[in-house]
Design brief:
This protein has 443 residues and is an all-alpha fold. Among the domains are: 23-109, no CATH class; 240-311, Serine Threonine Protein Phosphatase 5, Tetratricopeptide repeat. It has helices at residues 6-17, 22-31, 34-44, 48-51, 54-67, 76-96, 111-128, 132-151, 161-173, 177-189, 198-210, 214-227, 238-245, 249-262, 267-281, 294-311, 317-347, 356-388, 394-417, 422-441.
């Protein structure tokens, strides 16, 4: 007969100790003796046969979940540890029993709610203390649990608004932008109303613009506008965002060019970008100098103003800006004419004729000035006619008077330059008179 050694006796004893059945541990759940149940299930989990049962893990989830919200336990760190262990056990259970039939059974269906409450309550404590990262991690778990419990009809509600919202807030504040978008989308898609939720719609609009997801940008802007019709934010379009979010000239141009690449016939976009270029070429800042690529920017600006005008012919702004730009360019040439005239006078003896070079230069500048004035004439005329067709406020009247004055000057110079062309001179004289009378008639 084989001898039974002391080691064998000890092994058998230990095996018997750990060979508890599920029912041996379950009685502690039934009796509400959760601390005793914890001690027993901790021992039982050392037995591979016991730990191989799905019910062992849902039982551990139940015991630890209840302990995680025990008001008598003042050690919050320990309660968090219980909650985490409970959740790990629950995930293990779900792996072992994908049908989740035990979870929805009468004896276990209430216990996942304890686990959900543990993460919700602890997450809210962190939220009130602005501990955003741990709060987010807890609400992320709470949200996933509530989704499951609602799906399985353990929680008798259609949507866990509060937890989803808090998951979104804590994700946002902990810089988990994509996750925050996900939670906020869930709320926005059911058009959750109320003053407390307005900012989540703004967050979605803002971030979808940054992502250049203009479909969702428009979608959530429209929902926001329908729920908060008095909020101006939801009236802003892509161009407003592109302009306001940029912090430098180059960034602003880049963002607007991207919008125009997608929407080349956006009249507002063409005008807005043209105005930015105009402000750069005609900067009022002290010591401002023309950029090195001024000629390139000017060409693009003129293209944009002309495109904006063609897309919206009744809008006066493209004509005003373009006419002013071209008129100012003409005045720069006129200044060069004056400078050349003074220099010619200074180097020419009294009674003597100017040199051939000086005369040639004068004629060249005169021709350049004429061409520049003619270029400014068309947009100024269109702006003048638009002003003439509407009731004007004080500022518009001043703008109209300036246009009338500029056009009178343009036609006056065209008349002077129409030498030996009496018909043209008469035509230009008539236009000069017309705009002088317009000027006098603006009160």
């Amino acid at each position: 007969m084989k001898k039974i050694t002391l080691f064998t006796i000890l092994f058998l004893t230990v095996s018997l100790i750990h060979a508890q059945s599920v029912d041996d541990v379950k009685k502690y759940l039934i009796l509400g003796q959760f601390k005793e149940g914890k001690a027993e299930i901790d021992k039982a989990m050392g037995n591979a046969k016991f730990a191989g049962k799905a019910e062992a893990w849902i039982m551990k989830m139940a015991i630890y979940g209840v302990l995680a919200i025990d008001d008598k336990e003042k050690n919050e760190a320990l309660k968090e540890q219980y909650a985490n262990e409970s959740y790990k056990a629950f995930k293990k259970y779900m792996e072992m029993e994908p049908s989740l039939s035990l979870m929805t059974s009468p004896e276990y269906k209430d216990y996942p709610i304890y686990l959900y409450n543990a993460f919700t309550m602890s997450g809210y404590t962190d939220y009130t203390k602005e501990k955003w990262d741990p709060a987010y991690e807890k609400f992320k778990v709470a949200s996933s649990l509530s989704d499951l419990l609602i799906e399985k009809k353990v929680m008798l509600t259609n949507f866990d608004t509060t937890v989803v919202y808090l998951a979104g807030i804590t994700a946002q504040n902990s810089k988990h932008t994509d996750e925050a978008i996900g939670y906020y989308k869930r709320l926005a898609d059911i058009k959750i109303p109320g003053e407390d939720y307005e900012n989540l719609y703004k967050y979605l609009v803002f971030n979808f613009f940054l992502k250049k997801d203009f479909t969702n940008f428009e979608k959530y802007k429209a929902i926001g506008a329908s729920l908060y019709p008095k909020t101006e934010y939801f009236t802003f379009d892509k161009l407003d965002f592109a302009y306001d979010l940029a912090t430098s000239f180059d960034e602003r141009v880049k963002m607007l060019e991207e919008v125009l690449t997608a929407e080349p016939n956006n009249a507002k976009g063409n005008l807005l970008l043209a105005e930015i270029l105009y402000d750069t070429l005609h900067s009022s800042k002290d010591g401002a100098a023309l950029p090195g690529n001024a000629a390139e920017l000017e060409k693009r600006m003129i293209e944009l103003f002309n495109k904006a005008a063609s897309l919206n012919p009744t809008d006066i702004m493209p004509y005003l800006f373009l006419g002013e730009h071209l008129y100012l360019k003409a005045q720069e040439i006129n200044d060069a004419r004056s400078t050349h005239a003074k220099a010619t006078q200074a180097r020419t003896k009294p009674g003597a004729k100017a040199s051939a070079d000086d005369i040639a230069k004068r004629d060249q500048l005169d021709k350049q000035y004429l061409d520049a004035m003619i270029a400014a004439k068309e947009p100024l005329e269109k702006a003048g006619e638009i002003f003439a067709s509407k009731t004007l406020d004080t500022r518009e009247k001043q703008q109209y008077k300036k246009i009338a004055n500029d056009l009178s000057e343009i036609f006056g110079y065209m008349k002077v330059m129409a030498k030996n062309k009496p018909a043209d001179q008469a035509k230009y004289a008539e236009q000069e008179k017309k705009w002088n009378e317009r000027y006098d008639g603006i009160k």
